[in-house]
Amino acid sequence: MRDEDGAPVRAVVALGANLGDREATLRAAIGDLAGVAGVSILAASVPIASVAVTLDGLDESKPEYLNGVALLETTLGAEALLDELNRIEDAHGRVREERWGDRTLDLDLIVHGDTVSDTERLILPHPRAAERTFVLEPWLEVDPEATLAGARVADLLAALRSSEARR
């Protein structure tokens, strides 16, 4: 999908891994993304560590995640980009047995230009991105002026940190 003037759209992809050589996997995934026709990497964040999130909430007994964000320009539509993300996950040994289970690589499409989608396969903007420090913090690193659903990512991160501090 392109903007009306034919320019590529910006997309944000969140990366995470908690199995294997996490740092090498994230680096390789960025390289794989850069090799996709119609995708250019504008920036990639420094990885940050986070506690595993499961269906039951935070789980410190699980292996710790490394998370990051890649800022892209792409001429691919949202679903075509999602296909490429899934292909890259599979190439890195991603197994989909348990929802929100441990994984060698997780690539989530957070935003794709102004695309709004609510299908069984793809919800955009990502429905939980505003609740995840491990998405907002690296995103803010690579794009200090970023917005998510009309809100500044910096403001979302500040509110999230404030909420976490009160717990």
UniProtKB/TrEMBL annotation:
Enzyme category, top tier: transferase
Gene3D superfamilies: 7,8-Dihydro-6-hydroxymethylpterin-pyrophosphokinase HPPK
Domain 7,8-dihydro-6-hydroxymethylpterin-pyrophosphokinase: start-end pairs: 12-144
UniProt xrefs under InterPro entries: Hppk, Hppk_sf
Domain of life: Bacteria
Keywords attached to this entry: ATP-binding, Folate biosynthesis, Kinase, Nucleotide-binding, Transferase
Alphabetized SUPFAM superfamilies for the sequence: 6-hydroxymethyl-7,8-dihydropterin pyrophosphokinase, HPPK
The EC number(s) this enzyme carries: 2.7.6.3
Catalytic activity entry: 6-hydroxymethyl-7,8-dihydropterin + ATP = (7,8-dihydropterin-6-yl)methyl diphosphate + AMP + H(+)
Protein name, per record: 2-amino-4-hydroxy-6-hydroxymethyldihydropteridine diphosphokinase
